[in-house]
Amino acid sequence: MVGDDAFCDPSVPTSCVKGQAVQNGNGVKTGNCVKSLHPIPGKPHTNYTCEIEAWCPVEYDSTEFKGPLLREAENFTLLVKNFIQFPKFGKTRRNILDSVNNETYLKSCHYSADSDPYCPIFQLGYIAEQSNVNFAHIAEQGGVIGVMIKWDCNLDFDIEYCRPQYSFSRLDSDDVKVAVGWNFRFSKEYRENGTISRDLYKAFGILFVFSVQGTAGKFSAMPLAINIGSGVALLGLATLFCDFLILHIVPQKMYYTQKKYLRVVGASSAERSAESTDEQVLVE
Fold this sequence. Notes:
Blueprint: E1 28-35, E2 48-53, E3 77-79, E4 83-86, E5 91-94, H1 103-108, E6 121-123, H2 124-130, H3 135-141, E7 143-154, E8 164-170, E9 183-192, E10 195-204, E11 206-217, H4 221-248, H5 253-260, E12 261-264, H6 269-276, E13 280-283
Parallel strand pairs: 7-11, 12-13
Antiparallel strand pairs: 1-2, 3-6, 4-5, 7-8, 9-10
Catalytic activity: Ca(2+)(in) = Ca(2+)(out)
Protein name: ATP receptor
Main location: membrane
């Protein structure tokens, strides 16, 4: 047990609080301050430490074996079952397509973005390759890989054309020095000869995080009518805005005003018609 919170003073009854966990230790304090069997180097005056209740021996967190733990899993396969629902259209779809829903196909196919993009069975080595990950690296310390399933469906066509697209990426990193990869501990407790014992395991693995997103659309006359009406209204406003900008804002506004309007005084109808051509006529 190490750390300043492990030291205690036997003359102070409250220096060791019963039930309090030692932050850098392996158990909880019993409330007793005992003489240390191993004096702290550099602190000869510190000969007492808080007694703790813990499993013994403590965990020996060291990897004694050599080589990747999960190397043989590179050719293992993973069957992915995914369902997506579009409640507005009353449609439900799954990634095991009806057109390939037979046992013979599923027993022999392996997903490939090029040759078999709709097979729901994935080789772990292929997933690592598509994630730009060397499988040997994650086979040693574990890793976290994200699998994105994307549905983009046009329901104006048959539902059979609504098919998933897959993409892969690694979510953790090899660049960190602490808590590399993905691993966890679990224990099994039992009683042997009247003594409570436990076996502590540290497991390494590959964690897959699945993310599903989907969009679906279908033709509707109402949105089309709204969009057409909005477009017509915007075109009318555009004409008014351009006229206002040219006649009142730009530096050459007087020039454009003269060209837009032709002022005539006392001219006959025939003369005005001959002079106006395509210009608008403003009679004073």
